[in-house]
Amino acid sequence: MSAHETEDAMGWAPTWTQAVTDCRGEDDEPPFDDVTVRMTVPASIGGSQVRVELSNRFADESVRIGRCAIGIGGQFAEVSFDGQPSTEIAVGESRWSDPAHLAVSHGDQVVVDVYLPDPTPYATANGFTFDRSLPGDFAGSPEFPLDGSASALVDASREFPATDTGTTPEPDGTGWSLPAGGPFLRTVEVAGADAKAVVVCLGSSSTAMGWPQYTAALLPADAKIAIVNRGIAGNRIRLDAPRQTPSWGRAGLSRFDEDVLATHGVTHLVIAYNSNDWGLPGGITSLDEMPTVAQLIDGYRELVERARKEGLTVVLATVTPLDPQVAGEPGREDFRLAVNDWIRTSGHEFVDFDTALRSQADPSRLQDGYAAPDHTHPNVNGSKRLAQVMAEALARLPLQPANP
Questions:
Q1: Which Gene3D superfamilies does this one have (predicted)?
Q2: Rounded to an integer, what distance in angstroms lies between the CA atom of residue 20 and that of residue 390?
Q3: pLDDT at residue 253 above 70?
Q4: Is 81 exposed, middle or buried (0-12, 13-18, 19+ CB in 10 A)?
Q5: Which fold has domain 194-396?
């Protein structure tokens, strides 16, 4: 029996993912050396066993994992790699852990501890928050001594000029939406999930900021729908990240096979991009990177065609309003309206994120209660509103993949 057939027989399905990206050019996070990283992520579906994928996709050297442990509800299990307690991940590669015999339920917080004994650059990562320990191996320890620098790694507002770039969430939901993530962890899978659908959410910062996780939390456990996040802040559909900001990731078209088709059991694709393709050129990036509306729509069409060729059901999301200062630049708001008009009239399934978040008094702006401090991204309340709209849309969709 092949490895793929063995996976199918065990019923492995993703319960949480992130799209790892190249963070070597970022200086927000110091390197690791004799520390344990703790990442706490929500499970979208449950299962009888759990395993993790650790990735060294973007690095200059191999990474040694000294030890790894997974925890559910305060119970930890040390996990091995091909029967060994430690492993080395070569440049550009990833490694799956052996299964841990821990039951996972829908909505559980899955704790993944990774001990890094050697000097290790912060290179392959995503997400916004994780914890790092004081020096030492604390993988699986119920007591986790924090070094005092819990991370808020990506300030998505850097994509556009902003007057407030604070990243501390507010209790009333009006601050930044900062989901958990971190270095090296790419996928958490569960066995025996019997998933009815696996929904991959491909997009940029508003997706990365957590509406897929909030959507999963809204669904009942017996829905057995895995909703996983492949969003990257700053990401674009057509063009890879500029050299000066590699963490914006490879273009959606470039990473499609790796981040969508390689997701085990994928049945549905949600394409939910912000305005980076036309909002960044002329400000953050060179103006010659500005596409025409037709060129961007061709990018959407290619994503749709590639997904449908593999039998996936596809949902497009309309684009929410930009910061007024950026939207007011010539052509930006007209560009957004033209893209949204195509999404709504193209005949494809779509979810109307624009209508959900825009101000009724001024449809070119986000409603104040849903806007992060930069007035381009959703705050926590905005992410939860998008989740509500997405959950309602999923209820209308067939759970079986579409025919090619």
A1: SGNH hydrolase (3.40.50.1110)
A2: 23
A3: yes
A4: middle
A5: Rossmann fold (3.40.50)
- Please tell me the distance from the alpha carbon of residue 399 to that of residue 396, in angstroms, as a whole number: 9
The least confident of 23-27, 154-158, 339-343 is 154-158
Distance of CA 190 to the CA centre of its chain: 18
Three-state DSSP string of the chain: CCHHHHHHHHCCEEEEECCCEECCCCCCCCCECCEEEEEEEECCCCECEEEEEEECCCCCCCEEECEEEEEECCEEEEECECCECCEEECCCCEEECCCECCCECCCCEEEEEEEECCCECCCEEECCECEEECCCCCCCCCCCCECCCCCCCCCHHHHCCCCCCCCCCCCCCCCECCCECEECEEEEEEECCCCCEEEEEEECHHHHCCHHHHHHHHCCHHHCEEEEEEECCCCCCCCCCCCCCHHHCCCHHHHHHHHHHCCCCCCEEEEECCCHHHHCECCCECHHHCCCHHHHHHHHHHHHHHHHHCCCEEEEECCCCCCHHHHCCCCHHHHHHHHHHHHHHCCCEEECHHHHHECCCCCCCECHHHECCCCCCEEHHHHHHHHHHHHHHHHHCCCCCCCC
Residues 319 and 274 sit within 8 Å (Cβ to Cβ): yes
Q: If we measure between CA atoms, which residue out of 324, 315, 323 comes closest to residue 389?
A: 315
Q: What is the pTM of this model?
A: 0.91
Q: Are the C-beta atoms of 182 and 208 separated by less than 8 Å?
A: no
Q: Whose CA is closest to 214, among 248, 180, 237?
A: 180
Residue keyed to tokens 């999301």: 317
2: confidence class by pLDDT, cuts 50, 70, 90: very low
Q: Tokens 């998008």 sit at which residue?
A: 386
Q: Give dist(CA 115, CA 29) in Å, integer.
A: 17
b/e code 184-207 from CB counts within 10 Å (16+ = b): bbbbbbbbebebebbbbbbbbbbb
φ and ψ at residue 43, rounded to 5 degrees? -90, 130
User: How remote is the C-alpha of 322 from its chain's centroid?
Assistant: 21
Domain spans of the chain, in order of start: 3-158, 194-396
User: Are the CB atoms for 98 and 106 separated by under 8 Å?
Assistant: no
Residue 205's closest CA among 268, 128, 142, 267? 128
Count of C-beta atoms within a 10 Å radius of residue 282 = 17
